[in-house]
Design a protein that fits this description.
- By secondary structure, the protein is mostly helical.
- The chain is 76% helix and 0% strand.
């Protein structure tokens, strides 16, 4: 929690969250049809033609997205069961989707639930750090690839996005090439830092350094043991989201090709990290709608598809997370049973 929000009363924080959520919904409802160049009458007509089997398919793909991410959480926090990971993911996502900068509130929910199940604080801290890094890195790389795939298309502003994507993809190569030099610099003797002008400050600095070293070492151990599950879990999550994106376009009757649609989906992933609205809702859909219409998609169908996608990836997670959070609270946040001692 930031110093500003720490000084605000809880009622003001709730009001801020409600206002931000309302702004996201208004942006989604009004700006997406406008960005696609259509109106609500045409959007309602397309949404009215979505069939029951299509809705069932969208629900299944949304469930696959949620379930795939449990493998990421289970890899980052050893001992977390798939059921517990699903509860943490659904409840934390609901809180994050209600507040601007809601990731901090989602982290607090994750910490409370996993601690009640008996996981040590440092292991939870490693889990939060690893999953956050995986999310940002995966979306950054996917957005860069998507922007490069759209080069030469009539999508507005794609040249700047592709240039930024090229820089993003070149950074790992540059770091890998310069890593031996960086390691030699680390081994070089450094000047002894001057002592801090106070025993308390020196004590805090030593504790912070020990904590950082411990988290670094434990994160390295988790990555060494579970890197394959982390990578495959993130890949499966984004693949399920991409399939849901295509299914929404198909259900709404958009004429956009699958390859171009997937490139737009990939390029727009980084926009989900924008904190103007919870989860970037409205912003991501507007940008994707503009790109899809520029690629030849029918405006009303594109707007309808983006509203469907936002519903299944964002809005439905809120009541679902409320149900999982209530179920966890009603069960008293039951602790994980301690293993029985071995018989002599």
């Amino acid at each position: 929690m930031t110093p500003l929000t720490a000084r605000l009363p809880k009622s003001a924080l709730r009001l801020l969250g409600l206002l931000s959520s309302a702004a996201g919904l208004v942006l989604l409802a009004l700006a997406v049809p406008r960005a696609a160049g259509t109106d609500w009458a045409a959007v309602r007509a397309h949404l009215g033609h979505v069939s029951g089997p299509q809705v069932a398919l969208l629900c299944a793909l949304a469930g696959a997205t949620l379930w795939s991410y449990t493998y990421v959480l289970g890899a980052a926090l050893p001992g977390l069961t798939p059921r517990q990971a699903l509860l943490v993911h659904c409840t934390g996502s609901a809180v994050s989707n209600l507040l601007p900068l809601g990731g901090g509130a989602g982290v607090a929910v994750t910490y409370a639930m996993t601690r009640r199940w008996g996981h040590p604080p440092h292991a939870v801290a490693v889990c939060v750090a690893l999953t956050g890094a995986c999310n940002v890195a995966a979306r950054l790389v996917l957005s860069a690839v998507g922007a490069l795939l759209l080069v030469g298309t009539p999508v507005p502003g794609i040249g700047w996005a592709a240039a930024a994507g090229g820089v993003v993809l070149a950074l790992p190569v540059a770091l890998a090439a310069g890593w031996p030099v960086l390691r030699r610099c680390r081994r070089a003797p450094a000047a002894r830092p001057r002592a801090a002008p106070g025993g308390a400050l020196r004590h805090l600095a030593r504790r912070a350094r020990r904590l950082a070293v411990r988290l670094r070492d434990e994160s390295r151990d988790v990555v060494r043991r579970s890197w394959a599950r982390l990578v495959c879990g993130m890949a499966a999550t984004l693949a399920a989201q991409g399939a849901l994106f295509l299914a929404c376009l198909q259900a709404a009757g958009s004429r956009t090709g699958a390859g171009e649609a997937l490139a737009v989906f990939a390029a727009s992933r980084l926009l989900t990290q924008i904190a103007l609205t919870p989860g970037g809702i409205g912003v991501t859909e507007c940008a994707a709608a503009v790109a899809l219409v520029a690629l030849g998609g029918a405006p009303a169908a594109v707007a309808s598809a983006m509203l469907l996608f936002a519903t299944f990836t964002h809005l439905l997670e809120i009541p679902l997370g409320a149900l999982t959070g209530a179920w966890w609270l009603l069960r008293g946040g039951r602790r994980r049973p301690e293993p029985a001692p071995a018989a002599p």
